[in-house]
Amino acid sequence: MGKYLLRRVLQMIPVVLGTTLLIYALVFALPGDPVAAMFGDKPVNQAVAAQIRSEYNLDKPFFVQYLLFLKNALTLNFGKTFAGQPVISVIGRAFPVTIRLALMAFVFEGVFGILFGIVSGLTKGKWSDQIILVISLLLISVPTFVTGFILQYLFGVKWHILPATAGASPGFIDLLMPAIVLGSVSMASIIRLTRTEISTNLSEDYVRTARAKGLSNFQVTVRHILRNSLIPVVTYLGADIGGLMGGAMITERIFNIQGVGNTLYQAILRGEGTLVVSIVTIMVMIFVVCSLLVDLLYAVLDPRIRYA
Amino acid sequence: MTDTTMNSNSRDSNAEVFFPDPLPGQERFVASLDQTPLKEVDSIDEEAPATSMWADAWKTLRKNPIFIISAILVVFVVLVALFPSLFTKQNPVSCNLENSLEGGGGGHPFGYDLQGCDVYARVVYGARTSVSIGIMTTILVTLLGGLVGAIAGFCGGWIDAVLSRVTDIFFAIPMLLGAIVLLQMFRTSTSIWKIVFTLTLFGWVNMARITRSAVLEAKNLEFNTASTALGSSPMRNLFRHIIPNSLAPVIVMATMSLGSYIVSEATLSFLGIGLPSSVVSWGGDISTAQNLLRTNPSVLFYPSAALAITVLAFIMMGDAVKDALDPKSRTA
Amino acid sequence: MSEQTQAESMKSELARQQVANGPLLDVKDLQVDFTADGHSVHAVRDASFNVYPGQWVAIVGESGSGKSTSAMAVLGLLPGTGKVIGGSIKLHGRELVGLTRKDYEDIRGRQMGLVPQDPMSNLNPVWRIGTQVKEALVANNMDVSREKRSQLAKMLASSEDVTLKGQDDELFIASADLPGLMDEARDAVTKAGKADVDQAIEHFRSEWDPGSETRWGVARDLIAAGVDDDEAWAIAKKYVKGSDMNDRIAGLLSEAGLPGAVTRARQYPHEFSGGMRQRALIAMGLASRPDLLIADEPTSALDVTVQKKILDHLQGLTDSLGTAVLFITHDLGLAAERAQHIVVMYKGQVVESGPSLEVLQHPQHPYTKRLVEAAPSLASQRIISAKERGQDTRSLMEHHTKGEQALEKSEHIIAVEHLTREFKLPRKQEMFKAVDDVSFSVKRGTTLAIVGESGSGKSTVANMVLHLLKPTAGKVLYEGKDTSGFGSREMLDFRRHVQPVFQNPYGSLDPMYSIYRSIEEPLRIHGIGDNRSRRDRVKELLEMVEMPSSVMGRYPNELSGGQRQRIAIARAMALNPDVIICDEAVSALDVLVQDQVLRLLNDLQAERGLSYLFITHDLAVVRQIADEVVVMQHGRLVEHATTDEVFDHPQRQYTRDLLDAIPGGKLSLGLD
């Protein structure tokens, strides 16, 4: 287990280097003036442009630029926004809300995705399975922002059951609908994945052997079918953290939540390239660390991995 | 004593001593021959029609109502995308502010949006953007991801190691975030290609992973060894055996992800970094209509419904194809 | 009482009890249907058989005969759409057909156990072995401190010399009490002074497994070592006080023949070899001491020697526990060797049943006759007994072996010299020698068989001869030329003359290729003929392997294993090769189909003077096809001689073990 951990951490290093390099290269090494591009369709502010140039060491060779960027990133020094605030403090203010939102969405998609997936998988072909399957297909097909608008309109505007927008310091109730919207697509995917896994596992030989040992249907279902079916689901959940962070941008915008996603969206609107790169870099780092944690969880759940 | 032991040993092999009489119900029984006529050893049923895997899959698909419905929808959407003028006489970009938010009626079944554009015409013309981006991205992703995956799986060794690490790097960047970084550089461009290339750049990874494992699996099957022993070269094996045998999961993946690329394009346009509002697209229209949610939800509804139905059609088709090509997932 | 009469009186006592109590399992007119696409397929039709307490009954048949389906119907575990639609299944006189799920759960494990076929897929990979044994104990509320013996076992035990004392004679030793017991046992044996102390202690150490050895067993062992009766019982009572769950799990595993059971119980299935997994499955099947054990081809996936060991062990275990066994197998020889009663199934019906030796010696139904004729184990047995009687064996053999002189005169078509192949093991420094300095030669027009268990390196040799794998050292000569020096043109020529037929009939044909394309492929690769002549050639080849030309348009998934293997042979024959290398080419096939393919190979050799290198783990098959035999073990060549020599005068212990392991070896066939 220790060796496995070490190997995974070591494998993470080139991924971190590669991803940051890639993002950096996308922003600063493409043809054209990256600083001008950061201003988008707005006129170039020469003073700010000069500030960006020196902050990002754009006068130096590319790899030096990158290494300096990396050094700054590691020390959480991401420079300043157009408005003159340190980027890190802007992000720091926005993060708690987003983390709360993402966590709620994560719990929602995990709990309900697995629950409905189990019901669907165990009652394959019956009406409950068919209904769940149709709903999950619909959720996957309808883009998040459309689902968001529909729920916002129905629950927020029409029926006034839940707040339509979140506001400055949102609580649990304010974030409930955004979290459901954020988690809905992944929930549908988890339903489908769990269902497939369960129906595959149902016909495994070891399930039959467990029944032959005299285990009750409940014991067989919990200990053999569910235990084995959930391993790929856990992996999916881990990989989905990245999706949640991207999706947060849409939900935060629809429900006007002052989180990282919204900050990122505003930065895009204002054409504030440095802020965009910084936020994306941080999100990618979080994603990489989460993937590592999920990998470790995977190894705990599946003994075969540990020795592979 | 020694004598008796030996004696008993030799008698061990003599059945009659050990099992004197059959127990009740275990007497000798022989079925009459006409009850179970004896067939040739390993005879071939010459009656059954011959079917290849593809023919088999096609037969399954034809009988699947989900496939038929989704295929009709897909064909319809593609027709709309190819010949929008067949479906509406209106011009989606000739708008008149006088008509702003006017309700439906006459030749304008869906009414007008805030700019006074005909919503029905915009929905019809928006299909082209969505469908072409979906199809183009799928083709490019399949080519790029398929190539990288096939090379990694087929060559193995250090080539595989390097390509797999590169794949890991791209995998670590969520598609939406990567697309935002890249697209904010090209905000003013109206070409759909910027979306296609961006989605390809951050979307090929999954295809590469699936192709790699499919190729790896096909490569280790015995028929490759058999072909090599017949004198076939590795390249011939790759093209004649390995690639045809790893196509199924790639096709399934391509069909299913086509819908998701359409969603991604709409999302990017919705976030304002996709196509500018001068290009008619469902995502863009949804984005501009969102402020009308409380007052005129129908303007928001039509492009959303068109988008959802299109994506649903592609995903359902992908599902059906998957069921047909992968016998394991078939419902018994 | 002499041993012989004692054994006999026990047997007759057993028979008396069996008749008095009636059958344990009684299956009458069983019908099982599967539904597919709306219409039903009859998998089992009107099958009747019964099993008495403590008896081994074998169901024999080819794949698809309904033998496994019948067994699963008894367990109430029919897969998919399978359903019992008629007949009755009675266990202890209780009807099982139509039982509720709950009632069936109560019966499974406690009254019926299962040892399944494939050890690789029947253990859940995510749970420790011990946990999976524990499940069986917990689910059936087993008392882990004492043995649960059937009435039959008690009856059998009571006829031994030790008198039972008290009711709690069935308690197990706990691991915590073992050291104290050992010390006192040593003192007692020393004091008694009747046996060699160290030897006795050694014996105790091997016998007294915590969670498996009972108080009664300890007392018996002490008495046997010369300790006075009362003292022995006093010691046993003092220390043997019942075991806990972990002891019992380890005890069950060591009973099933798994050494180091305590450590093994903490391991996961992927750390076990196939044989070890099968032992763990046996421990699970017997954990709750069922009256009936259903063993569904329990050893088909294992090497013959392992198979023999495991079955010997299982038989010993079920005999001592009084467990009845319903033994499902495709091997008639194995069935006759292990079971008293045989049920032969064909196409879902019982075609013949009766006492095993009687069925074997006088098969009545044409299908049974076919089986008896085709079974390789029985065939080689026939040859042996014919030789013992000094009869001419030539008529019995499909393949007429060439004599030693003939072999010496013929030229070598393939020769391997000091062939060695090393592999790097993952995360280990030293290299693993899969093949270690192997030399032999195949003579033109003859068959050389390489025999060995899995991991003996025999397939690695085949791959090196085929030039699919580079040797680490040594060389392969074809027609006297070193193949390692071949350029691409010479290599293509070599490929044309040396063709393989592989083991897995499902893997060696490309599922995307029609039969025509598959057979045509070698012609195309070597650029032989045009489309029309190739089509004629394919037709000719199909005829050669006795297949109708109508299969040309079909795909491999529509053919059976044997049919695919015949297609593979046709493909190998397409280029008119000199040598065919068969790597376990018939191992995956049913006996009748195997026999058919072997006949085909023999005929082709006789007609065309082909030379075969025949790789197999099954010595019984060797007798039917080979002129010379090479026996391999751990990558080394341990014996090399003519087939008759190897069978009649095996030089090495390993070869003798392999010969012993051929099922049915101890049967007397009565060739009259």
UniProtKB/TrEMBL annotation, chain A:
Residues 95-298 form the ABC transmembrane type-1 domain. The chain crosses the membrane at residues 12-30, 99-119, 131-155, 175-193, 233-255, 275-301. CDD domains: TM_PBP2. The keyword Repeat does not apply. InterPro entries: BPD_transp_1_N, MetI-like, MetI-like_sf. SUPFAM superfamilies: MetI-like. The keyword Transport applies. PROSITE patterns: ABC_TM1. Its main location: membrane. One of its GO terms (cellular component) is plasma membrane. GO terms for biological process: transmembrane transport. It comes from the Bacteria. Keywords: Cell membrane, Membrane, Transmembrane, Transmembrane helix, Transport. It is found in: Cell membrane. It is a multi-pass membrane protein. Belongs to the binding-protein-dependent transport system permease family. This is ABC transporter permease. It comes from Bifidobacterium xylocopae.
UniProtKB/TrEMBL annotation, chain C:
Pfam families: ABC_tran, oligo_HPY. CDD domains: ABC_NikE_OppD_transporters (cd03257). Residues 27-372, 414-659 form the ABC transporter domain. Keywords: ATP-binding, Nucleotide-binding, Transport. The keyword Transport applies. GO terms for biological process: peptide transport; transmembrane transport. InterPro entries: AAA+_ATPase, ABC_transp_ATP-bind, ABC_transporter-like_ATP-bd, ABC_transporter-like_CS, Oligopep_ABC_C, P-loop_NTPase. Signal peptide: none annotated. The keyword Manganese does not apply. GO terms for molecular function: ATP binding; ATP hydrolysis activity. Belongs to the ABC transporter superfamily. This is Diguanylate cyclase.
